[in-house]
Design goal:
By secondary structure, this protein is α/β, with parallel strands linked by helices. It contains 7 helices and 9 strands; from the N terminus they run αααβαβαββββαβαββ. Helices cover 34% and strands 22% of the residues. A 7-stranded mixed beta sheet has the order 5-2-1-6-7-9-8, sandwiched between helices. Bound molecules: S-adenosylmethionine. Residues 40-41, 44, 86, 88, 91, 107-109, 112, 141-143, 158-160, 163 line the site of S-adenosylmethionine (SAM).
């Protein structure tokens, strides 16, 4: 599933300018503005990628997401095939490994994927499940990928919707309904600037050729930050 490189490396000066633009954009979002991220694919490189987890682990939002998503996944049997997109630094990899899940990790940033790969336990690096490598990683775009129809059981889409325009969130959700057979787990901010209202996803689920339904809607660290669980009801 490894796709082509979708970003360009930049020099340090360009990197600093990019980070300044991202900070400006974040201030606008926090002020309640509707902002389409200028270039979300460009953010997670260099120092941002390297320090990603250190800045987040232990924060209420991070811990709540981790606990809710792991609890939802706990019911699934070993061998379940998970697409984690964006996989980022692989925060769920140790949990997937403990459950014996088969994992496909996709992200648009190679530097984030490198950190995710490092989290695969040494004894599982070459493990095989159902004739395929247990852990596979690739560069790809959540809005349009080369992954086949119904190729995985579950899609996990954590902390991506704020980096996509509402139209791109719709594209991603349609893509996940195409790729996943049973379940889609997604975090969304439903209020404030750049809200991604739940009804947007419900509408797409209802219009889908396969009958997806919002089965669980968990409050995360704040009332307007949710973990949504869609299930294929077929
Ligand atoms: C906030 S991080 C979330 C990572 C991980 N899911 C987590 O919860 O820690 C956002 C990630 O989305 C990736 N990303 C941004 N746009 C993307 C796209 N269109 N397709 C795939 N990944 C994308 C970034 O490279 C980054 O790793």
């Amino acid at each position: 599933m490894v796709g082509k490189m979708l970003y360009l490396r930049t020099d340090a000066g360009a990197e600093a300018a990019k980070q300044a633009a991202m900070q400006q954009q974040q201030a606008l979002i926090e002020a309640g503005a509707q902002v389409v991220p200028a270039d979300p694919a460009q953010k997670y490189h260099g120092a941002v990628a390297a320090g990603y987890e250190a800045r987040r682990v232990g924060k209420p939002k991070w811990e709540a997401e981790q606990q809710i998503i792991e609890t939802v996944l706990a019911q699934l049997p070993a061998g379940t095939v998970i697409l984690d997109a964006p996989v980022g630094t692989g925060r769920f990899i140790p949990y997937y490994a403990s459950k014996g899940f088969a994992v496909r990790g996709m992200d648009i940033s190679e530097e984030m994927i490198v950190q995710a790969v490092e989290k695969v336990p040494a004894e599982l690096k070459t493990a095989i499940i159902d004739g395929e490598q247990q852990f596979m990683f690739g560069i790809g775009d959540v809005r349009k990928s080369s992954i086949g129809d119904g190729a995985v059981d579950v899609a996990v889409n954590c902390r991506i919707t704020r980096w996509l325009s509402l139209d791109d969130c719709r594209l991603m959700f349609k893509e996940m309904m195409r790729i996943a057979r049973k379940m889609i787990i997604m975090t969304v901010r439903t209020g404030g600037g750049n809200a991604r209202p739940v009804h947007e996803f419900n509408t797409l689920a209802a219009a889908s050729a396969r009958p997806w339904t919002l089965a669980e809607d968990h409050r995360c660290s704040e009332d307007d930050y949710r973990v949504l669980v869609f299930r294929d009801m077929a």
